[in-house]
Amino acid sequence: MEVAPKESSGKNHEALKMEGAGFISHEGKTYREEENETWKILCQRRMEKLPKTASKAWLQGLEKLDMPLDRIPLFDELNERLEPLTGWTVRAVDGFIPAEMFFGSMARREFPSTLEVRSQDSLEYIQEPDIFHDVFGHVPMHTDPVFADFVQEYGQLATELEDQDKFDALGRLWWYTVEFGLVEEDEEVKLYGSGHMSSFGEADNVFIGGPEIRPFDLDEVISTPFRIDIYQPVLWVAEGFEQLRDSVAELRRRWAEELEE
After folding, report:
1. Torsion of CA 242, 84, 98, 101, to 10 degrees
2. Nearest Cα to Cα of residue 138 among 120, 112, 170, 168
3. Which domains does the chain have, with CATH numbers?
4. What are the pLDDT digits (tens) for 145-175?
């Protein structure tokens, strides 16, 4: 894997609850007024454009979750709405975690999210994911049944791999779909990847001719390296999320045949 993901520590994280003037998060984390204000500012700025640029699945997911846009969400309230839809839940993690644990979490339909939020002097860009990227960017897509199946099946396949080259290929599939994927809707290119949903410049770059946009091609995607420190020079647009789910089945078939040879 070319980017270190995160995963649950295995602890029993308590549901968030109201206590006094602040929110008490998993294992006693308290969000300050400034942190909730950061979340509110980020949501307001992204929602100025996402209603016109985001995929229907992401926008509908935001509505299905009734995600608060004026404060950092509580995981128990998100899970109360998310789990009945697709069987997925959000779980709190602490920083970067081993890739094998990350994908094991995906295989169990548990999405790992950090609890930290970026500072107000770093609204535009942070190198490591924060709760805005993880929850606002990723979680709404997990309300879509086809996309939810895609990510779970992806995680399951990743846990079965021992070949590093194949693992790296899956990492590139993740990057160009879950993180920076595009989908065609009503003959228009729409955003669904979390990197676009939670960013400003990267998302805008898509619509000003920044990246070369190609039809989704599995072989191209899994063989194209990526960098995390530049805007993406090439992106792929899927015909629908079924195409992503089918790509995992295709890789499983190919790699199984290789083992039989």
Report:
1. -90
2. 112
3. 17-260 (1.10.800.10)
4. 999 999 999 999 999 998 999 999 999 999 9
